[in-house]
Amino acid sequence: MTTVYIHGIGIAAAGLPNWNHAREVLTQRVPYDAALKPALKTELLPPTERRRSTEIINLALHIGEQAIVSAGATAEHVKTVFASSGGDSMILHKICEALATPERFVSPTQFHNSVHNAAAGYWHIGTHSRAGSTALSSYDDSFASGLLEAMAWLEADDTPVLLAAYDVPAPPPLLAARPLVASFGVALLLSRDASRNCVASFEARLLDQTSPAPALPIAELNALRAGNPAARSLPLLHALALGQSTRVTLPYFESAALELTVRPCPN
Amino acid sequence: MSLVNALGLGTGATWTALKNRASGLRHCDFEDAKLNTFIGRVRGVEEYSPDARWNAFDCRNNRLALMAFELEGFAAAVHAAAKRYGKHRIGVFIGTSTSGIGATEHAYRHRDPSTGALPSTFNYRLTHNIFSSGELVRQYFGLTGPANVISTACSSSAKVFASAQRYIDAGLCDAAIVGGVDSLCLTTLYGFASLELVAPHPCRPFDVERGGISIGEAAGFALLEKRHSAGSAIVSLDGYGESSDAHHMSHPHPEGLGAAASMQDALRRAALSADEIDYINLHGTATRANDNSEDKAVVLTFGGKVPCSSTKGWTGHTLGAAGITEAIICALSIKHQMLPGTLNTTAVEPGMGSNVLIENSARPVRKAMSNSFGFGGSNCSLVFGAPQ
């Protein structure tokens, strides 16, 4: 497969509020502090849409914006892959709760926000981008799956792709059925273009055998990795933070893996 | 190919109903929903008893999928492909909008009165989670290749064709199961009702008196291969197009610019000019805004000559399964050299410029396009052709 270049990174999680700070934590220059919460700001939405958006939409837009801005890019012609295991479980909870009452009143705004591609819809409204977009899930393997989807798109077309992977724990009682430990969002702006500023490049291979997730040097991050599908990106983010040439293997379902040969960009 | 919908089990049942102009829509009799609307309900789902092996997956959505797997030699074709290419070389790309949310709806009606907990029998992962049907397909056929479930509302199971084609082109797999599953549930019935988008009569796409959608359900699957083996291919996927409206979450672009971009992208990838398309299966949901927008997009891309129709008067709007349903209808149109018209529609809205067929029409069909557009402004167009 073609070499993919990473131009911008966005991240938002407890203790990893942005990429600059996350890099310091991942390289163990500053200690991990879970009390450090990201501010999910987004400049993208007009006031009417902002009123209707939800926590997970704000998370997805915030990390996407971080990735675009840090790359010094514009979002206008960028395709998007939104990868989330379960989507907006808060909205799904509210709808199922309403449907269990005799009135069964489903809010129209909640209903249109309940689609798995809600964040994608808001992103393209906010950026005025008519580029193609997809939203997918592969349960716990949604990050690797989103990355593969973005790579397949780059293989077909020479247009940048923004990958955003994110999941937010459901409220009770749904939480017990899907016990995520914390929110996590990560975004990567990817392209085939080596000439622009880039953070790193990688080549990918789909392996027909499983591989255990590489351990991270920080215990809390291993717990986060195990407790949120989007945080399964952490081994790759760790490699990017170190800025060294290395090989990262991401588990992909029970009998496959995605092997990434990562190289830092010279700049 | 394999298809289950309100018209019956199998693509043959769908084709017979299309030919005979027999609609699958009926007044809403789903569970205890009290809504004045028509639905396309698959008969026999409530009584269907899947093999005990699939108990953990049991929900309406997965029942539809299981009902479709064994129809028309589909399972045998998948097993043959797995043997030919290797089980790790078959991708799985399924589209759905609400997956098995019906299972969660039921669980919320049976919460523990003191703790509020959901019943212990509720299995979120294998029923409601978006990937549930993808996991079911992988396990049912023993496949280990790349897999995801695309959920972009009503374009979901059109976009699976585009993804699968890209994975095959990139060498990530040699063949793929593409498909879509969406089932009736209170979420969509009451949700679309709250948006005032459901019609009190069977839907009438493009009709001057259309009053909204009729919600349906379906499961459909197709085996996409990098080259057709021994002349068994029914159709070829000649092109795909995808775009975003960048306009509104639940209203299409008023000038149809997003939809037009998707159709033009599909024509470009198929290396076809607009006048080489013999038929367009419209998204044609029968809401006022959707049909107006699509009409403008079709005129912008094709002018007013290419015959087009919406088949949702037969099947209802099967939401995340609409893409695969109408892809299969395009394939059947090419195979049988007949275009379905637009059922329930009597007079196309004056001022609309596209060539909407009301009656069925026997004629040569070499290339057919299928449109699928969803909430969030997610658009996908596919071009199918007679196999070379």
What does this structure look like?
The complex is a heterodimer of chains A (267) and B (388). With 267 residues, chain A is an alpha+beta fold. Chain A has a single domain (4-198), classed as 3-Layer(aba) Sandwich (Peroxisomal Thiolase, Chain A, domain 1), CATH 3.40.47.10. Chain A has helices spanning 19-26, 47-52, 55-70, 89-99, 108-113, 118-127, 142-156, 174-177, 219-227, 234-242; strands at 4-13, 79-83, 133-137, 161-167, 184-191, 200-207, 246-252, 256-264. Chain A has an 8-stranded mixed sheet with strand order 3-2-4-5-1-6-8-7. The mean pLDDT of chain A is 96. With 388 residues, chain B is α/β, with parallel strands linked by helices. Chain B has one domain (2-385): Thiolase/Chalcone synthase (Peroxisomal Thiolase, Chain A, domain 1, 3-Layer(aba) Sandwich), CATH 3.40.47.10. In chain B, strands 2-1-9-7-5-6 form a 6-stranded mixed sheet, with helices on both faces. A 6-stranded mixed sheet of chain B has the order 10-17-16-11-12-14. A 3-stranded mixed sheet of chain B has the order 3-4-8, with no helix packed on it. In chain B, β16 (367-374) and β17 form a beta hairpin. In chain B, α7 crosses α12 (322-336) and α9 (257-270) crosses α10. Chain B is globular and about 60 Å long. The two termini of chain B are 18 Å apart. The relative contact order of chain B is 0.17. Chains A and B meet through α4, α5, α6, β3 and α7 of A and α4, α6, β6, α7 and α8 of B. β3 of chain A pairs antiparallel with β6 of chain B.
Tell me what the CATH architecture of chain B is: 3-Layer(aba) Sandwich
* Broad structural category of chain B: alpha/beta
How many angstroms separate the termini of chain B?
18 Å
Strand order of the largest sheet of chain B: 2-1-9-7-5-6
| Distinct helical segment count of chain A | 10
State the helicity of chain B in percent bands.
Answer: 25-40%
Kindly estimate the percentage of residues of chain B that lie in beta strands according to DSSP: 15-25%
Order of helices and strands of chain B: EEHEEHHEHHHEHEHEEEHEHEHHEEEEE
Instruction: Tell me the total number of β-strands of chain A.
Output: 8
Cα-atom Rg of chain A, whole angstroms?
18 Å
Structural class call of chain A reads alpha+beta
Helix-strand pattern of chain A, N to C?
EHHHEHHHEHEHEEHHEE
